[in-house]
Amino acid sequence: MSHQKMSTHKLTRIALLSAVLYVSKAVLEFLPNVELVSLLVLVYALVFGREVFLIILVFNLFELIQWGFGIWWVSYLYTWPVLGLIVLALRRFVKEDFVVWGVVAGLFGLAFGAMFAAAWLPVDRAYAISYWVSGMPWDVAHCISNFVFVVFLGKPLYRVLLQLKKV
């Protein structure tokens, strides 16, 4: 069985794109549920395929280092990869239609609170449900901002990253 080594170029790209995810989230933290992470994960999955999961893993480790361990972090371990999986499953059909990708990102934003609250189900089902329901207005904000970001920034970012991939 052969073991494939990761090239320095690929390792550097993963580190850089993870850092961009982390910084983009940190810069917009003052706006509740408005983030560029969804846009970036979507475009990273389109351009780099399964490599998106390594990028998300490093991003999640950055979040852990900054904020410490909590149930919220457990939800990050599956919530962001779910978006990557959705994009990988749909990319053959949707291709470069960033209005459709905007709808996908919007629906992800709308579902984010439910996915996030699911980590609480084994601990306290009533809390998980109340957390999700009370957060629905924030999920709507997440939905709208994801849609707007993807529709307006998705294609230009996609083209830039395609060029980066060629380097």
3D architecture notes:
80% of the residues lie in helices and 0% in strands. The protein has 167 residues and is mainly α. The chain has a single domain, classed as Orthogonal Bundle (Arp2/3 complex 21 kDa subunit ARPC3).
Short note summarizing the structure:
The protein is mainly α and 167 residues long. Helices cover 80% and strands 0% of the residues.
Fold topology:
Elements: H1 8-27, H2 37-48, H3 51-67, H4 71-94, H5 98-117, H6 125-134, H7 136-166
Helix pairs in contact: 1-2, 1-3, 2-3, 2-4, 2-7, 3-4, 4-5, 5-6, 5-7
The helix content, as a percent range, equals: over 70%
Shape-level CATH architecture: Orthogonal Bundle
How many distinct helices?
7
Number of domains: 1
Overall number of strands: 0
Q: What spatial form do the alpha-carbon principal axes imply?
A: globular
* Mean pLDDT across all amino acids: 93
CATH third-level topology = Arp2/3 complex 21 kDa subunit ARPC3
Unreliable residue runs: none
Helix-strand category: mainly alpha
State the end-to-end distance.
30 Å
Q: State the major sheet.
A: none
For this structure, what is the CATH class? Mainly Alpha
Question: Roughly how many Å is the radius of gyration?
Answer: 16 Å
In terms of DSSP E residues, the strand content is under 5%
Order of helices and strands: HHHHHHH
